User: Which sequence fits this backbone?
């Protein structure tokens, strides 16, 4: 069965600190996709990244970076030099190739950046 | 760039009434997904369509139905509304079916309140 676990319910850091959001997933498929979405207070879901199971290269996009490790079934997300505008709920998600239209979300991590 | 458009943004209905939510995908996108996010919950997959045919079904109540039209927009019809149906309803779209390499982009959501 597919499952996404975000153990950190809430994180609060001071602006300019680095912060890592953890994500652990479970799947029986060998082909799957991993996602991160941001949900700011306004409510919309903002796509951040999609990674397929065959691409374990880490990715960096500005202040954001992602560390995908199949050996530990983890797909962690790091924000460097955090800013107040980064405050949001962040969801890690998984879809399996066999049912790729069904994206399973983790319970989310609420990130608060204090000035 | 054009995004996924959902209407209405907010909707208030009474118990046992009917509601229709509309979703207009990104131009040229042929796949539409519907998700339901209850208060403080993660988004839950309801149903998806590819090329106007239902492609996958999640935890959608029998009181709900959906379809995708020839112009690729989709409507989610909800009947006999219950208080528990109060949630944020997201529509997402992608190109080429759920198994294609295209990522899914979410609309801003419709907030349904049942009173």
Assistant:
């Amino acid at each position: 069965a597919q499952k996404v676990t975000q153990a950190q319910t809430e994180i609060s850091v001071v602006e300019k600190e680095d912060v890592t959001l953890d994500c652990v997933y479970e799947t029986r498929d060998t082909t799957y996709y991993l996602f991160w979405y941001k949900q700011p207070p306004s409510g919309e879901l903002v796509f951040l990244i999609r990674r397929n199971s065959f691409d374990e290269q880490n990715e960096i996009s500005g202040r954001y970076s992602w560390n995908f490790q199949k050996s530990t079934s983890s797909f962690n997300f790091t924000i460097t030099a955090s800013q107040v505008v980064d405050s949001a709920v962040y969801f890690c998600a998984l879809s399996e190739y066999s049912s790729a239209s069904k994206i399973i979300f983790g319970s989310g991590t609420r990130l608060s950046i204090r000035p | 760039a054009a995004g996924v458009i959902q209407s209405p943004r907010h909707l208030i209905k009474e118990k046992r009434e009917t509601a229709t939510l509309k979703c207009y995908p990104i131009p040229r996108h042929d796949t539409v997904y519907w998700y339901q996010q209850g208060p403080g919950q993660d988004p839950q997959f309801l149903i998806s369509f590819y090329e106007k045919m239902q492609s996958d079904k999640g935890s959608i109540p029998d009181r709900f139905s959906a379809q995708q039209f020839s112009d690729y927009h989709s409507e989610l019809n909800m009947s006999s509304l219950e208080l528990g149906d109060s949630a944020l309803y997201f529509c997402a779209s992608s190109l080429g079916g759920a198994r294609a390499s295209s990522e899914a982009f979410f609309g801003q959501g419709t907030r349904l309140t049942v009173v």
